[in-house]
Specification:
14 helices, 14% strand, six-stranded parallel sheet, alpha/beta, 34% helix, single chain, 408 residues
Length: 408
Amino acid sequence: YGDHRALHSFPTRRSSDLIRTLSDLDLKGQRVFVRADLNVPLDGKGEVMDETRIQAILPTLRHLADHQCPVILASHLGRPKGPDPSASLVGVAKRLAELIDGTVLFPGEVVGERVTSTAEELKAGEVLLLENLRFHPGEKGGDPEFARALRDLADIYVNDAFGTAHRKDTSTYDLAFLFEQRAAGLLIEKEVAALSRIVEDPERPFVAIVGGAKISGKLEILKSLIHKANLLLVGGGLANTFLAAKGYQIGKSLVEEDLLQEARNIMALAQQRQVMIRLPTDAITTDRIDSKNRYHIQVNVIPVNHLIADIGEQTVGKFQADIARAKTVFWNGPMGIFEKSGFAGGTRAIAKAVAACEGFTVVGGGESVAAVHQSNVADRINHISTGGGASLEFIAGNSLPALEALAL
């Protein structure tokens, strides 16, 4: 299957061996700044609707509590342009206190005298949660004054926000270099170990499943997977562009017309490297996205007034058979318009197929992870990544700034 070596610039050791971890730190009683990913959905009252990302940080917080460390915790939430009550972390602070059954102080500011004095008085095992980092303009662009203000709050820096590892924000990159002692938390350590296993030494056959709406955001990962996987299963709107590139008439389906040649190039590269790309042969279509009308149709006879909304039963069966034979599986992206319950069947079927696979399985990306949870099979997946974009960048072989900052 050609050259499947990793594209990372770590030729002699696994990527997971090349970042500082908690075991490299002298933690006893030290104040620790923990950059987390607490970007969780909130309801209209600011209450946490899905605490998955909060749960993911708990092992690191417990480890630091065991070492008598006061913790200054920081995160983004949403994409506010400045202070915005609807994006406050106050609800997260409340839920976190319940989960750790301990003290979580919330000064309601990112930096300032109140934050500084609270941090100085913080006791062992207590947590100080800063307000949403995106409320401060210094979070973007590597503001040295903002970085120094955060640096002065703690003795040690720990990054456990894998979901933002591909971004070069002040808190995930510039800040880290101001600490002599800096390391990845237990979540990032786990993420890097699991993804390294796929990138650097996957057991074969390696089946990659890629879906989602558009090919434009996944060109690099598709090309990278052709250099790594044995079989590529493509669904969702992504598959439409490939089908159109092969000459199929697919009605009103989403197609990126400007990337048809790019899709042909990817298929040619796959053929050259003896990697099979399996596309849908049948589909669930509709006349409108908001319609309840569903039709099961072969992809070579899609009516001009229909659009593809999900993969069909035959395609599901073929994908299931391929997944069952795999020794390694990586899945990112839904197989259809997953947010509409009538068109979520294909995605949920893939979730169950991945869970039933006896090989090493990794799922990343919000909708793929949601499908795994909705299908009640999360406990049967070897690794569920907390970073859709970051996991794609990692597997594509691209450098992740936050991991660069933690390198040995």
